[in-house]
Amino acid sequence: MLSVNEALTLVLEHAQPLPPRKMLAAEALGCVLGEPVVSDIDSPPHDKSIVDGYAVQAATVTQAGAVLTIVEEVTAGALPTKSVEPGTATRIMTGAPIPAGADAVVMFEQTALQDENRVRIDAKAVKAGQNIMRRASSLTRGQTVLQPPAVLRGIELGILAEVGYQHALAIPRPKALVLATGNELVDFWEKPGPGQIRNSNSLLLWGLATQAGAYPGLGCVIRDDRESLRGTLAKSLNNALLIISGGVSAGVLDLVPQVLADLGVEQVFHKVNLKPGKPLWFGVKRFEGTEQKTLVFGLPGNPVSSLVCFELFVRPAIQKLSGREPTGLARGKARLTRDHSQRGERPAYWPADLQRGESPAVTPLPWKGSGDLATLAGANCLALFPAGERLFKAGEEVEVLHLPD
Ligand code: AMP
Ligand code: MG
C-alpha cells in the first residue's frame, strides 16, 4: 500500500497549474496573478498635501506669529489657480495639489485664523517639503507594480484599481464538483427514516473546497447502482476536480472505482496507508486532443475519513491547480498534554485541540472514530501518530497539522 507521501507525490504529478485567463479584478481575489501589472500613472499624480492646512513658502515664514494673506482655497479634486508668494498662503485640504510657489504645508492645528483673509502661523519652524507627498513618490508611470506569482489579496486588488486594471490575467479557482454516493443517504434538510443518515459530506467537502480556494459546486446524492453512478459521473467530468464521497471501500455496493474505469478515468492509486482514510481512490480523466484533465478523488464515506483525505490530498491538489505552492496544511510540533495510546499498522491522524504559544500543547480529543464528526467541532488540528503499537506519554512531542479556521 502507498504511503501518504507516495500518494501525495502522485497526486501532485497529475495536478498542473490551470492556464491563466482574463477576469474582473474583483473576481481574481485569492487567485495567482498571471501577468506583470504595469502602472499607467504616477502616484500621486501631483505633489499633494497630506494634511489640511496652509500651503506656504517655507523660507519666508521664519518666525512663529507671522500673519499671511490667504489667496485661495483648494480642496481635493480641485486645482490651484494662484501661486503662493512671500506673505501669502493657500488654504489647502488633504490630497489637493500644492500650488506653484509653495513648498510646505502648515497644518490647521498650528495656525489661527485672524479674519476671513488672514491666518497666523503658530508653528515654531516651517521646513521646506513638510507635509507634502511628492508626485510619483509611491509609483511611477511604466513601473511594474505586481509580478506573477503574486497572490491577489485585498491589498493587490487595491493596487490593480490604482493603476487602472479593471481586469487581470490570473489563474482561475479550480472548478470542483462535490458528489455523494450512498443508498442510506437523505438530503440534509430531510429527517432520516430507518436505516438512513443525512448526507453531511457534501456540505462538509463543499466548505473545505471553498476554504481551500476552489470554486465548488454541490451535486446530487447518487444511489449505489451502476446506472445512477454512470449517468451522473459521466456528466460530471467537465470539472478540474471531481470530489466523490463514498463507494470506494470493499463493500458489495462500493461501485465507484469500477464505474469510473468504465468512463475512462485512469486509476492512479487505490488505498493509502493512513487512518482514517485508507480506501482513498484517485484517478485522472484525460480528454483527447486537449491538455484538459479532470482529477477524480473518491473519498471514503465516513465524514472524518473524507475530511482527512481532503486535507492531505485534495487541498494540495487545489493549491497546485491554482498556481500556488502545494504545501497542504501548515505543520508544527506540540507536546502532548496527556498519554495517548496508538495501535495499528497505519499512521493515525487524530483530531486534537492545540494550544498555541511559546511551547505549544496538544490534547487528543475523545474521538469515537471516522464516523464521529461532531467531536471535531472542538478540533483545531490533527495530531500525527506514526504506525505501530505504543503509548505516547504526556510531554512527548508529536507532529500536528493545523486545520484552517
Ligand atoms: P462508504 O465509504 O460508502 O462505505 O461509506 C462508509 C460510511 O460512511 C457509511 O456507512 C455511512 O455511515 C457514512 N457515509 C457515507 N456517505 C456519507 C455522507 N455523504 N454523509 C455522511 N456519512 C456518510
Ligand atoms: Mg456507501
Can you describe this structure in just a few lines?
With 405 residues, the protein is α+β, with helices and mostly antiparallel strands. 17% of the residues lie in helices and 32% in strands.
Characterization of this structure:
The protein is an alpha+beta fold. 17% of the residues lie in helices and 32% in strands. The chain is built from six helices and 28 strands. It has helices at residues 4-14, 154-162, 201-211, 226-235, 256-262, 303-321; strands spanning 21-24, 32-33, 37-38, 48-49, 53-56, 66-74, 88-92, 104-107, 111-115, 118-121, 132-133, 144-146, 167-171, 175-181, 185-186, 197-198, 215-222, 241-245, 266-270, 281-286, 293-299, 331-336, 340-342, 348-355, 361-364, 381-385, 390-392, 397-402. Helix 3 (201-211) runs parallel beside helix 6 and helix 4 (226-235) packs across helix 5 (256-262). It is elongated. The relative contact order is 0.13. Bound molecules: adenosine monophosphate and magnesium ion (MG). Adenosine monophosphate binds at residues 180, 182, 185, 197, 199-201, 245-247, 249, 251, 254, 300-303, 371. Adenosine monophosphate (AMP) binds at residues 180, 182, 185, 197, 199-201, 245-247, 249, 251, 254, 300-303, 371.
